[in-house]
């Protein structure tokens, strides 16, 4: 194996591992990945990231081989950037063990399936912690991320409906004289001379 100028051994690029992992998830029925990504024709440049679909939600797999000291920091920054760019609603950061880079092509899939991966999920509401898992465990991580995203959407919709309801009620009540005084009595609010002067 030759070495690059930064001292890292040549072998499988991270993009190859991302696509291979997406292929495993696709075959298990967990992630729908476009054929154009899975068909790795010789000489064709692979995408930097792998984009899939999970129950109608776009998912990005962003992986790095854990062989440099700052790789985790750069991966986290890139995952957050994917969210900010609106590329996907769920971004999964994956740190691959260094030995996968030099695995035999024939054994790569099996090694990837059993490898201990470090995984972190990023969604708009925040990100989880780094966890250690394998390809099968990644399915459960993805499912939990999806459920969290759906819950967040449900809460956002409920908050928006509540906000609209309060606004509508406020506007309707503002047209009736004496409402402020009655509401103060009902809600047991302290008497404030300044609010008495407010015209509704």
Overview of this protein structure:
This protein is of the alpha+beta class and 200 residues long. It has one domain (14-155). The protein has seven helices and six strands; from the N terminus they run ααββαβαβββααα. The chain has helices spanning 14-27, 35-38, 71-84, 105-114, 135-173, 179-187, 193-196, and strands at residues 50-54, 57-65, 90-96, 117-123, 126-127, 131-133. Strands 1, 2, 3, 4, 5 and 6 form a six-stranded mixed beta sheet that branches. The longest helix is centred in the C-terminal third of the chain and has 39 residues, at 135-173. Residues 1-5 and 41-47 have low confidence and may be disordered.
Residue share in helices?
40-55%
Query: β content, as a range?
Result: 15-25%
Counted up, domains total 1
Span of the ends, CA to CA: 80 Å
Please give a quick description of this structure:
The chain is of the alpha+beta class and 200 residues long. The protein is built from seven helices and six strands; from the N terminus they run ααββαβαβββααα.
